[in-house]
Amino acid sequence: MSARRPSHAVVSLAALDLRRRPDHRSELASQLLLGEVVRVLSGAAAGSWWRVQNLADGDRGWVKTWGLVGASRTRAMRWARRARARAVRPFSEIVASPGSSTLVSPLVLNSRVIAGRARGKSRPVELPDGRRGWVASAALHSGPARIDLVARVRSLLGVPYLWGGRTPLGFDCSGFTQQVLLEQGLALPRDAQEQFRACSRLKTGDSPRTGDLVFFGVPGGPAGHVGLIIGGGYFAHARGYVRVSSLDIDNPLCDMALMPQLSGFGRPRKAPSGRPFRGLQTGESA
Predict the structure, then answer these.
(1) Which pLDDT does position 270 carry in this prediction?
(2) CA 173, CA 164: separation in Å to the nearest integer?
(3) By CB count within 10 A, which of 31, 67, 191, 215 is most buried?
């Protein structure tokens, strides 16, 4: 590895596109969120793109270096330990001072920052690149408390579908399930087929419960679509936009084009506390 290229980096933008190749015209594979840690795998010849692995979910791709702060493994671990404040609103704004209209950075769901003590209704925060600002105290949470899953789904209804999307500005199907369940303490892989493999399969006759996943795919092929069970025979998923559909073919909310591809249900496995940065804790195996 070049001496100029660090082993790790921290995402310093609200959302950073992860592409298949080092080209803005290349397919959007996923997105990285503010505060996530990546391992730097290689660099493009021009030097403005790095191939990275997101340590939150193992996904790999190419990103522009303008959205990263290079770091040693030790420094990345230090950031992960200190950035314990998580965004719990779909959208927030970090501003220059309490009550200011000067934007420092947007803040989207599940992003992480270093936060100080709340002062009134605002809380000071620090970003990975050293920028500082203030955000509404209610927009952040530090600790294990989790929002009600169905309430979270309700807050995201109508978010448009975006291939590779992982934020409330646009989700793909697996980005939606990953981010909703992350709030529930469940760290899922990035795409539908990986999520299928990461779940415990429900046996025939077992009833899915709230928080389980429902998978769809071409018979004999990999899972190509995933939704989140929310109870009462309904599931939420990103298909055109985040919506609620029914598993009952007699219900007007049933997606009759999708139901023939129903391939089964899975129950996400609980992850150890602190697992979102698991790559820093497991020797960063691929």
Answers:
(1) 73
(2) 9
(3) 31
